[in-house]
C-alpha cells in the first residue's frame, strides 16, 4: 500500500486506479511511519506516497487526493505549502508548535491544521477520512458535470441533424435524380465521366440510407421514452396503492 518515493514528485503514481492516494510530506521518517501504521487499523486504507520537503513538488495534482504535511524543516515550510496551495488539494498540516500552526492557518486559510499532542493520530484519522470523502465526492460531481456537458453537446448536434434531415433529403433526392437521368442517356458521357457519375449516385444512396437510419433511431427513442414514462407511472400508482 505504501509507495516509497525514489524520484521527483512529478513521478508520483496517478490516482486513477480507484483507490484514494494520500501524499505525506515530512522530513521525519517516524512521522510518516506512525501515520501509515495507524491507518492500517482503519476499515478503508488508501495508497500512500512518502516524500521529504527537499523534493521538488511539481507533480500532477491528479496524482493524489489529499496531502498530510508535518515535521518538515522550517525553511521549507513556505515552499511546500505554496506548492500544495497551487495544486488546490486538501492539505492537513500537523505540528507541535502552536505558533507554526497559527502561521499556517493565517497564510493558507484553506489548510486544515492539527496540533500534534495526545491522541493526535486518532484525530488525524477522522479528519483525513472526511477530507478524502469530500475530495472524492467533489471529483465524482466534477466528472458527472463533464459527462453531462458532453451529452448536452451530443444532444444539440443530434437535434440539429434531425432538424436538417428534411433539407438534406431534398438535396440528395435532387442529386440522385439528376445523376440517374444522365446515366439513362447512352453515348453522352465518356467512360471516365460515367464511372464518376455512378460513384456520385452510389454515395448519394449511402447518404440516403444514413438519413433513413436517423429516422428509425428517432422512432425507437420515442417508443423508449413512452415505455419509460408508462413504467414510471405504473410504479407510482403501485406505490400509492400500497
Structure, briefly:
The protein contains five helices and six strands.
Spatial gap, N to C terminus: 50 Å
What is the fourth-level CATH superfamily of the largest domain?
A: Response regulator
Strand content: 5-15%
Q: Give the C-alpha Rg.
A: 32 Å
Q: What is the annotated CATH architecture of the largest domain?
A: 3-Layer(aba) Sandwich
Given as residue ranges, the uncertain stretches (5+ residues, pLDDT < 50) are 1-16
Shape, please? elongated
The top-level CATH class of the largest domain is: Alpha Beta
How does this structure look, described?
α2 (77-87) links the parallel β4 and β5. The protein has five helices and six strands. α4 (120-183) crosses α5. The chain folds into two domains: 2-117, Response regulator (Rossmann fold, 3-Layer(aba) Sandwich); 145-224. It has helices at residues 29-39, 77-87, 98-107, 120-183, 191-241, and strands spanning 2-4, 21-25, 47-51, 66-70, 90-95, 112-115. 18% of the residues are buried. The chain has a six-stranded parallel sheet with strand order 1-3-2-4-5-6, sandwiched between helices. By secondary structure, the chain is of the alpha/beta class. Mean pLDDT is 81; it is low at 1-16.
Topology:
Layout: E1 2-4, E2 21-25, H1 29-39, E3 47-51, E4 66-70, H2 77-87, E5 90-95, H3 98-107, E6 112-115, H4 120-183, H5 191-241
Parallel strand pairs: 1-3, 2-3, 2-4, 4-5, 5-6
Helix pairs in contact: 4-5
